[in-house]
Write a sequence for this structure.
């Protein structure tokens, strides 16, 4: 288990609802290794996005243990969690969440700037990534000037710019047509494998899950089944 980057044990998440609590996740045990691509499947309401938010340190679990690089993260301060998120995790969502007032280059540079990297160095790194995913000629454009597929490719570059050990993708092609989504998905798979990042993709699409190294099916907040692709 030495190459495990992320693991959970007995992970529980409850949300208040009036005078009582609703338990959305019921004791999730998982591990994710460097270099593997894992799909999390399940119907709406199964707890997929909630699980991804916990794994990405965007929310705290109600109970259980979550480890990144074998370090428990529940007790970390808000500042340390934010730093760990920035340094270790790249996020790709269904909607790109690019900052409209920034250029493409500035959007991709931003995680580096937050990490304290000098502007010129951050810009050079961002430009290199954008070139690698076919957006060399769009550096100075604003997100609104791009197509939906181009915007999502910019979001992918932003997710990769800090060389994360872990990539979390929540329905990354859900807002795109089939052809454009395939382009983004192939880029995600290629980049993840090249960088040997552990990659977790939340999806409801069986064909996407079929291309992952492993898939996990959630139902009603529990792991219903798990399979490694042959």
């Amino acid at each position: 288990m030495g190459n495990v980057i992320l693991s959970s044990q007995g992970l529980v998440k409850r949300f208040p609802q009036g005078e009582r609590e609703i338990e959305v996740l019921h004791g999730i045990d998982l591990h994710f290794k460097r270099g593997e691509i894992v799909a999390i499947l399940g119907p709406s309401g199964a707890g997929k996005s909630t699980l991804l938010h916990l794994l990405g340190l965007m929310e705290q679990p109600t109970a259980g243990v979550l480890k990144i690089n074998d370090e428990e993260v529940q007790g970390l301060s808000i500042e340390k969690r934010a730093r760990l998120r920035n340094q270790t995790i790249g996020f790709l969502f269904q909607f790109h969440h690019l900052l409209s007032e920034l250029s493409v280059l500035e959007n991709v540079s931003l995680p580096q700037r937050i990490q304290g990297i000098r502007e010129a160095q951050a810009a050079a790194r961002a430009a290199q990534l954008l070139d690698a995913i076919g957006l060399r000629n769009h550096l100075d454009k604003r997100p609104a000037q791009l197509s939906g597929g181009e915007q999502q490719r910019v979001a992918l570059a932003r997710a990769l710019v800090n060389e994360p050990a872990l990539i979390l993708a929540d329905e990354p092609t859900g807002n795109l047509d089939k052809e454009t989504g395939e382009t983004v998905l192939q880029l995600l798979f290629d980049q993840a494998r090249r960088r040997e990042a552990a990659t977790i993709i939340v999806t409801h699409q069986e064909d996407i899950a079929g291309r992952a190294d492993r898939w996990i099916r959630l139902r009603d907040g529990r792991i219903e089944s798990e399979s490694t692709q042959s």
User: Anything to note?
Assistant: The first helix runs from residue 48 to 55. The beta strands are 4-17, 20-33, 37-41, 63-68, 71-72, 89-92, 166-170, 198-202, 214-219, 222-228.
